Structures are given as structure tokens and as C-alpha cells.
């Protein structure tokens, strides 16, 4: 097995080359030499199940692995119980979308810790996650999906690697999604300099959760500008100031022999930058 690479959402070049519909994205992604595509539902899961099924069909035809980004409205750690429990509906929307697409991983931002002690936020988060899982079971949507809890980029968001690992312990279908750019931005840079810095993330997930989770890790990668609160803005690979550098990550995954899916979330050039990563990875792997 090999690592897989692809864009989160559609690159600017997808549209400038005259493509319009996301049904065309899997074929386009394949034509660029990529392997994966993340459907962006951050602003809400808006398409019809019929459209998702068409995207899924195109992905299967082109051998593209799909994942879904769940709405940003999920708030598992809100101070308001109604919002915590109400977040389940976004899980249901996302799971319906994932099933129609034939996608497995649903990427989730857990929520904010701004008004809470972090320990309390984590306990709220785990309980609300279990509630969402119960609701997915009731709707018969849980089997075959993986709930991916993402490491977050802002200091006041729930989602350090420690917190993500804790949340993953609530159930077997909950997995870590590692956004390396977020982790770097949250600590105001300097987190990932060498391949060993990246390897430690895979090692911790393998040891503290399960080796298979590390092997098949779903990842996000982009260079991200930060201020003292952490993440400010996604950049492109043109950036040389904020990082992190992707080259040591490619060396790390080639050395470890793991097969992660790496979704690039660069600002507008996600497909091009995903391909830059893939080419670098293939150089190390050869
Ligand atoms: Zn995300």
C-alpha cells in the first residue's frame, strides 16, 4: 500500500479549466495524477443524495478515495447542552452524504473551549460524541463510517493531539484526523522541522490507540499563518514564513512505510500542492 494524496474541495484551476460541477472532480483529480478527494461540507451538506451518488460513481470509476468534511457548525463542547446534543443532526447529514458517496471518513471539528475549562470541554465533547453515535445507530447510519476528530489550529478549540486521542477512545469507529498545519499554527510554529517530529505523531497514535490507525491515518496538510491565538489563514506552498515544511513529512511516511491519506487544504492550489507532496513522497519511496 501507498500513501494517497488529493485536494480538499476544488482547486481554482478546476474552475479556470472550465469545469463546474463536483461530479467532474474525481475524473479531474485523477487526470492530475492524484488519488483522493475530500468533499467540502463545512458550510453545510447542501447537495442532493442523487448528486452525491453520482460523485461516488465517478470516484469509483477513477479509483479516487473519497472523504467528507462535516459542517463547521458541530459544537460538541458548547456550554449549551442543546447545542451539544443538537450537533448530532450534522453527523446524520454527513453520514447520509458519506454513504451516498461511498466515503468512509467523516472529518469533524469538535468545537470551542473558549468559555470552559479544557477538561470540562473534553468531557462534554466525549459525551456529545457518544450521543451523536447513538443517533447514528438509531438512523442505521453508523456501520461503515469512521468519525474523524481533527486536530485544530486555534488555541481555544478542542483538538490538541492529546484531546483527539482521548476522544478516539469513546468508540471503535472514532479515529484521529491529523491536520499538521493546525498543530503547527496552534503552537505558533516550530512543531514540525524534521522527519522525526512527524514520525512522533504516527508513533503516538500507533501506541496510544492502535497501529492500524497510524497506518491508515487520515491527514490534512497546508501551510497556515498564525497569530497568538493560533491559526489565522490557510496559505499555499509559496509560503516560506509560517510552514510547516511538507518535505520532512514525506520522508517520515516513506520511512515508516505507512499508508495515510493526505488531503491538501492550500488556499486555491490544493490540487497542485497535493501533487507537489506526492512527487516528493515518490522520490523518497523510490
Ligand atoms: Zn477541518
Structure write-up:
With 286 residues, the protein is of the alpha/beta class. The chain has a single domain (4-285), classed as Alpha-Beta Barrel (TIM Barrel). It has twelve helices and twelve strands. It has helices spanning 12-16, 25-31, 49-62, 81-86, 88-101, 118-138, 161-168, 180-186, 195-208, 211-215, 247-256, 270-285, and strands at residues 4-7, 36-40, 65-69, 105-108, 111-112, 146-150, 157-158, 174-179, 218-221, 224-227, 230-234, 261-264. The strands form three sheets. It has an eight-stranded parallel sheet with strand order 1-12-9-8-6-4-3-2. A two-stranded antiparallel sheet has the order 5-7. A hairpin with a 2-residue loop joins β10 and β11. α9 (195-208) packs across α11 (247-256). The longest helix has 21 residues, at 118-138. The radius of gyration is 18 Å and the shape is globular. The protein binds zinc ion (ZN). Residues 69, 107, 109, 150 line the site of zinc ion (ZN).
Number of strands: 12
Strand count, sense and barrel status of the largest sheet are: 8 strands, parallel
Please count the helical segments.
12
CATH homology superfamily = Divalent-metal-dependent TIM barrel enzymes
Q: Can you give the helix content as a percent range?
A: 40-55%
User: What is the topology, as strand order, of the major beta sheet?
Assistant: 1-12-9-8-6-4-3-2
Q: Compounds present? A: zinc ion
Distance between the termini: 14 Å
Order of helices and strands: EHHEHEHHEEHEEHEHHHEEEHEH
Estimate the global geometry from the Cα principal axes.
globular
Amino acid at each position: 500500500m501507498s500513501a494517497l494524496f488529493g485536494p480538499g474541495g476544488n482547486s481554482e484551476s478546476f474552475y479556470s479549466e472550465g469545469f463546474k460541477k463536483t461530479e467532474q472532480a474525481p475524473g479531474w483529480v485523477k487526470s492530475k495524477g492524484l488519488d483522493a478527494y475530500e468533499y467540502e461540507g463545512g458550510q453545510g451538506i447542501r447537495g442532493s443524495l442523487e448528486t452525491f451518488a453520482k460523485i461516488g460513481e465517478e470516484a469509483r470509476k477513477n479509483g479516487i478515495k473519497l472523504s467528507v468534511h462535516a459542517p463547521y457548525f458541530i459544537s460538541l463542547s458548547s456550554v449549551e447542552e442543546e447545542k451539544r446534543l443538537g450537533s448530532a443532526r450534522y453527523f446524520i447529514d454527513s453520514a447520509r452524504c458519506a454513504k451516498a458517496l461511498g466515503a468512509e471518513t467523516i472529518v469533524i471539528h469538535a468545537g470551542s473551549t473558549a468559555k470552559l475549562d479544557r477538561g470540562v470541554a473534553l468531557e462534554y465533547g466525549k459525551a456529545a460524541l457518544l450521543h451523536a453515535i447513538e443517533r447514528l445507530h438509531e438512523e442505521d447510519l453508523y456501520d461503515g463510517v469512521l468519525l474523524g476528530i481533527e486536530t485544530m489550529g486555534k488555541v481555544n478549540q478542542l483538538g490538541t493531539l492529546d484531546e483527539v486521542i482521548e476522544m478516539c477512545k469513546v468508540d471503535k469507529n472514532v479515529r484521529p484526523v491529523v491536520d499538521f498545519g493546525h498543530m503547527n499554527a496552534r503552537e505558533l510554529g516550530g512543531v514540525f522541522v524534521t522527519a522525526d517530529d512527524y514520525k512522533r505523531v504516527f508513533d503516538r497514535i500507533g501506541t496510544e490507540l492502535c497501529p492500524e490507525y497510524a497506518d491508515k491515518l487520515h491527514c490534512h496538510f497546508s501551510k497556515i499563518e498564525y497569530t497568538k491565538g493560533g491559526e489565522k489563514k490557510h496559505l499555499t506552498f509559496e509560503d516560506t514564513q509560517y510552514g510547516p515544511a511538507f518535505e520532512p513529512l514525506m520522508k517520515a511516511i516513506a520511512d515508516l512505510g505507512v499508508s495515510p491519506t493526505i488531503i491538501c487544504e492550500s488556499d486555491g492550489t490544493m490540487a497542485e500542492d497535493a501533487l507537489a507532496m506526492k512527487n516528493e513522497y515518490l522520490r523518497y519511496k523510490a
